[in-house]
TrEMBL record:
InterPro entries listed in its UniProt record: Exo/Archaeosortase_dom, Exosortase, Exosortase_cyanobac
Protein name: Cyanoexosortase A
Residues spanning the membrane: 15-34, 40-58, 70-88, 94-112, 124-142, 189-205, 212-234, 254-272
Organism placement in taxonomy: Bacteria, Bacillati, Cyanobacteriota, Cyanophyceae, Pleurocapsales
GO biological process, one term: proteolysis
GO cellular component terms given for this protein: plasma membrane
The organism of origin for this protein: Hydrococcus rivularis NIES-593
Amino acid sequence: MKAILFTRVRYLKNFQFWLLGIAAGLIAIHLTVTWRFGDINLLGIAVLFWLAVSSLIWRKRSCLNLDSDALSSFLGASIVAVVLLKSTSLTGSHFIRLSPFMSAVGLALLASGFKGLKQYWQELTVLFFLGVPQVILSSLSIDPSLITARYAAFILWYSGFEVSRQGVYISLPGGGVEVYPGCSGLENMTYLLGLAILFLAMFPMNWGQKILAPIVAVTLAFLVNGFRVAFMTVLAASSHPEAFEYWHKGSGSLMFSLIAVLLFGLFCLFSIRQQEPVKRDTA
């Protein structure tokens, strides 16, 4: 009996070691592929998401049920193999955004099977919102460019500029811009939505804050992007192509994303402090 228990413990330790190695390899591959693809926004948020998911798994490592059946293990290994094979070549942004969730599902099946998937619902939800919503929205051809153009034109009009708009074209006396899908703010909205889900996974909130956090995240991303489009229109009309390129495709393009993240961070900090008095009262 003691020999059987010893063999079982050693098997679990070896199994955990292999799972940890596979997970570390998949994370490293995803970050490397994302970096080579040149998506700096996704790379930064992916690092944050992987760290958060690793922290969540580490918290409950002692109570995880690692017992997978043959079918679940085969399916999980197949998913991991697909991710590894597709990662050998840069196949496009859709796969880069889908691969974290695919990797997580494959690892969960390998570790605990179909019956144990519910143990990882938080981690799977977080990695789902890392990139899957953006792939779905782009596949459905959802494009808020016209709404963004109207909002940016309103900002310019309210600021005293002689602005005119025709569809997604915003014009000032010296020039203008076209708000195409890449500048519509949809990418930043999905990123901040993912951050909202991550925040809710890491910090317990009441139902009101759980509903409010995603709404605030998407709204902030849209509003900040509208100011970015208005600012780009002013630069285009001022005949400074170097400045326009810097803020459009250069390092300056990341500043508005950073502003949106910081504003949402302030909201998260406020929400956490709102929870502290409740915890003290219930203690």
